[in-house]
Amino acid sequence: MKNIQQAQSALVNDTCTDCGSFVDVGAVIDEFDTVLELELNGDNCQQLANDVIAKAQSRFDAVTAESEFAADSAKVNITFSCSAEKMIFQLENGL
């Protein structure tokens, strides 16, 4: 771990003390990743799509959604105001 710390810039101190790794959070979370794209299939896909859109809009204020329906499939794009909202929604709903 000392080698990793020595190899880092003096301006960076984000080494994980448990595993010795480090990560730039900006490399993991893209601030512009605000659109959640879902593809749903099955007889009740339209109801599922409407339910997930309603959940997102009730959870966060500035959510917009677009959906396309076919016979037994649905494509849903939910746009959040920031990537953190998208991630929180995905985690809360197991998406």
Automatic annotation (TrEMBL):
Lineage top rank: taxon: Bacteria
Gene Ontology cellular component list: cytosol
InterPro entries associated with the record: DUF406 (IPR005272), UPF0234-like_C (IPR035571)
A Pfam family this chain is assigned to: DUF406
Record family assignment: Belongs to the UPF0381 family.
PANTHER family reported in the protein's UniProt record: UPF0381 PROTEIN YFCZ-RELATED
Protein name: YfcZ/YiiS family protein
